[in-house]
Amino acid sequence: MSQTAKTHDVTRETEELFRILVQGVTDYAIFMLSPAGVVTSWNVGAERIKGYKQSEIVGEHFSRFYTDEDKAAGAPAQILATAAMEGRAEREGWRVRKNGSRFWAHVVVDAIRDGDGSLIGFAKVTRDITERKEAAAALEKANAALFQAQKMEAIGRLTGGVAHDFNNLLAVLSNGLQVLAIQSRTPIDKKMIDGMRRAIDRGASLTQQLLSFARQQPLQAHVHDVNGLIREFWPMLLRAGNPSTHVELALQPGEAFALVDAARFEATLLNLVVNAVDAMPTGGTVVIATDTVQSNADMTPALQAGRYVRISVSDTGTGMSGDVLAQAFEPFFTTKQPGKGTGLGLSQVYGFITQSGGDVHLSSQVGEGTKVDLYLPVAQPATVVSVPHVASHETVLLVEDEPDVLGVASELLVSIGYEVVPASSASEAAKILKERADISVVFTDITMAHGISGLELARLVRSLYPKIRVVLTSGYSPAALREEKGALSDVLFVPKPYRLADLAKALRA
């Protein structure tokens, strides 16, 4: 055999091996295109990924793999032009299978030239990377959710700290005014005091709104039928609308029990309905719906697994953009005109629901309305336990680490007939309890800057002095108190800034 014949045989053998290799690849679509983009070869991987058999696709233009949007934008011609000019083009994008379904593809197109440098076609390699894209999207979503949670936690800590300090200032003013009101005898003094008290009440309302967002508000949570609460509050919700707005109910049949502060839940509903009505200046419909759902990572990523009562408030209003949606729960953020809103509405909703063990999900599209989903853990109906009446006592151990609050609160207690033993820390109070046998009530702040906390003092009193009653106070929510199952079950709580009537009621309960 001549050398030329041997060379031809080797070439044919090499080409056959290469063909077998290409045909054996199933994870990649490998095929050739003419200079005009017509398919001239087709491997098994291409058939598996795109769904076309070789007889169906050879001779057809490769643009049929592109979406209608990409074809309209001229993407097929652009990738061939780039490959012809630069020798290679690489892209990612949606591609269409024979059955019409889409997949995310990584595409490489190489220009093929002969020995003279003339373009004779293109080699195209496509890989289905849909799973990788979905995993990356899921990771991005999780990172975004984590960032949002961390941001809200940081803002909440800052807000809660400021509100707590402000509450202490209000407590000094409120307690001092109440002492003055008792001692005052002239009408002008009472008029001035009443005006100052109203200003303090407005300040206290603001701190409660901030503490609500920070999840540190005092809650009076009990097991309620959420559907029953909504029906009872229905007349008030109707009045929140206007002649061009309809408020409708779509409650699940039967009862839906959850552990919730009824008053704050009603305020939350009213807040959401008012927001919905404001978002529909030309009229529309607000729907309040309830159902019971099983949580999952896609629907409620921030919640633990379990069953939840979902309360949905949806409207047909103007909707929100993505930027607005991302900031909607932040305190003082508002899109309303000056004087039309404080920007604390949705932040209160967020704080209240998350403090109640649930979560809030906000979805919206510009021009298509907004939907707010509230999730509250399902609870079992509870039996009512009565609290026995205890006679009032005369000596109160007052524990407060803020000197101004301690001084004015002492005057307030003395003004209503109690003997007061002041202590500037829980540790000091513990020493006083060892030395004195006439203490009847311990009235202590929960949060102490130094030493043991008011809760730890309460546990100590319950353990060593079971006959002494304990009343706690704070601008923060006593979350740890609710977690106590037995030791502190009879301890009362009075939120700061407290009124004289509330304090006297707690001390004499």
TrEMBL record:
The keyword Mitochondrion does not apply. It catalyses: ATP + protein L-histidine = ADP + protein N-phospho-L-histidine. PROSITE patterns: HIS_KIN, PAC, PAS, RESPONSE_REGULATORY. Residues 89-141 form the PAC domain. CDD domains: HisKA (cd00082), PAS (cd00130). Keywords: Kinase, Phosphoprotein, Transferase. One of its GO terms (molecular function) is phosphorelay sensor kinase activity. Residues 395-509 form the Response regulatory domain. Residues 14-71 form the PAS domain. Gene3D superfamilies: 1.10.287.130, 3.40.50.2300, Histidine kinase-like ATPase, C-terminal domain (3.30.565.10), PAS domain (3.30.450.20). This is histidine kinase.
